[in-house]
Amino acid sequence: MINEATLAESIRRLRQGERATLAQAMTLVESRHPRHQALSTQLLDAIMPYCGNALRLGVTGTPGAGKSTFLEAFGMLLIREGLKVAVIAVDPSSPVTGGSILGDKTRMNDLARAETAFIRPVPSSGHLGGASQRARELMLLCEAAGYDVVIVETVGVGQSETEVARMLDCFISLQIAGGGDDLQGIKKGLMEVADLIVINKDDGDNHTNVAIARHMYESALHILRRKYDEWQPRVLTCSALEKRGIDEIWHAIIEFKTALTASGRLQQVRQQQSVEWLRKQTEEEVLNHLFANEDFDRYYRQTLLAVKNNTLSPRTGLRQLSEFIQTQYFD
């Protein structure tokens, strides 16, 4: 485990790409222990000059879309291209332990064994959208360790699409055809954040269904306002099982990155993402401090009970809580 005495040496080893040190650094960042949090802050501050060079990708999709199979095929393609690949697989959390349930690493055997790949299952810990609170910081650690492509895989349910897209360069929505999910997948929120829609399982006797689904997605994309002026989202098909169409997806990602880099948009997006992350973390930290105050926590519970019993309107409850905070902290 990284400690105060070994921090400088651990940073050096991390910069050299040692996977064991990267894993230890991630464990430190994920820890909720106050001493570990203070140490991880020092670590993150020290590595910031070495971050930002990786391509940040997100892959999400409906359950059964074959995300792990796709990531294995896609990751191995990148490795053959001479790139180092890191996968942060955000799992649903166990309601008892808070730990990962699925263990995506066990479903990407070839990628897990590759010397230039790193896979880290991360519990979502009940965070909105299935994205770990620390996922962004884990990406920074991977970048400092020299990984060229960092991929965040999410559970693909609820509002995870929007949540994850806010911390990545390129967002890929993995879909399947013929499973009754074609129309379900065409949601405004999804279409607005997806840079690429990939229809997987284009194999066997599923080609006709895939072609129909592709047409549906393309039609939906063309009636929506573009996310970026520089890029028209595309719909691609592949068979991750048969490893077909994977290279076309990579070429499209490169085109996306080239277009946004040339216009300066990619840098602007990353800067805005950092600002949004700080704002969100500030809000969470303020709330944590508020509820750590026993007087506020007690007053909040009393107000909540009154609202539940219809003896107080939510608007009045909010006003009273605001006045309490003003009196306690600002007067």
TrEMBL record:
CDD domains: MMAA-like (cd03114). Transmembrane segments: none annotated. Keywords: GTP-binding, Hydrolase, Kinase, Nucleotide-binding, Transferase. GO terms for cellular component: cytoplasm. It catalyses: GTP + H2O = GDP + phosphate + H(+). The keyword DNA-binding does not apply. One of its GO terms (molecular function) is kinase activity. InterPro entries: GTPase_ArgK, P-loop_NTPase. Belongs to the SIMIBI class G3E GTPase family. ArgK/MeaB subfamily. PANTHER family: METHYLMALONIC ACIDURIA TYPE A PROTEIN, MITOCHONDRIAL, METHYLMALONYL-COA MUTASE. NCBIfam families: lao (TIGR00750), PRK09435.1 (NF006958). This is Protein kinase. It comes from Escherichia coli. The lineage of its organism: Bacteria, Pseudomonadati, Pseudomonadota, Gammaproteobacteria, Enterobacterales.
